[in-house]
Amino acid sequence: MFKNKKLLVLFILTMAFALVVAGCGGEKDTAGSDEGKAQEEQSQSGSEGKAEEMKVGFVYVGPVGDAGWTYAHDQGRKYMVEQLPYLDESDTLVVESVPENADAERVLTDLAEKGCKVIFATSFGYMDYVINVAKRYPDVVFMHCSGYKTAENVGTYFGRMYQPRYLTGLIAGMKTESNLIGYVAAHPIPEVIRGINAFTLGVRAANPEAEVKVVWTNTWYDPAAEKEAALSLLDAGADVIAQHQDTPGPQQAAQERGAFGIGYNTDMRDFAPEANMTSPVWNWGPYYVEVVEAVKNGTWKSEQYWGSIADGVVGVGAYNEDLVPEEAKKLVEEKLALMKSGELEVFAGPIKDQEGNVKVKEGESLSDEEMLGMDWFVEGVKGNIPK
User: Fold this and answer.
1) What is the secondary structure of 208-224 as a DSSP string?
2) Which of 15, 60, 115, 196 is the most exposed place for a label (fewest CB within 10 A)?
């Protein structure tokens, strides 16, 4: 190929030099150079970003579209994502319509296995399953809504919904003409009983002659059963329907019969605009932000949170201006101010039970422990508590 020997020698020398340079370049130490520092910083930044990754799990007892309890929690989740810059929708793992049985334990385990650092279990019946799974995943924070069992990595959270229950009871008491108000109730647990009692105390504060009749459905989410229960109360003479249920079914029943309603969980006016006057509502978003921030920052500690109307986690929803009397609005605002200042306690004596026995003496109030374990009805409630 090379006829000229000089050219051949020159070519060999050139190639040898190129190989030496390439070899030195391949072993170049960049640790102390600007390029090396940049590469190291980029590597560290990537590691830190991965370490800061947050996954948050949510377990719902009903579908997000229930327009009530689960919808309110999911609105809180969305608010959390909007407020925390390190979260987006893909960082929240949601499982809907999880029954309060062994399926809940399976779902909770799956969320922990998928890397969730905090898991919100949003129904009372999940309590024991949360405790069981938390033992196996000590590095995961579990938050159980409305329960009472805690552990080092398990906290509970709820709101004093009995406060807006009382306030909306004032409206119902002033609105009724038949002096019979129907109440569609889910399960006979302290949370529901406490709400019925608070509502009745509000009703009777505005109208001592009125009574509250209770029908149990034994379900959180069953639109047909909820509506049927409301219709039975309307058949019995009720002209206002209140509820502790997850759908607007009872409000729609009231509208069909030309009656009025007090909803629950969210603003239900759009579902029964001719009946629904207002609703006691939940606002979970700020609390979800607070918990996730604490977990991320390493400052979270197990507690039993029971937020008040002053915290904003519970409140009275928007009024249906065409249906709520002005004097009722004024009364609610007066009582709300006293409640926020601590001057008004819903369960302050004297309070009697259905049989006329004094349960809370004048000058005394129920403790949190007594309210959380409530298993009796106040005077003015018509109905029984199933054992």
Assistant:
1) TT-EEEEEE-S-SS-HH
2) 15
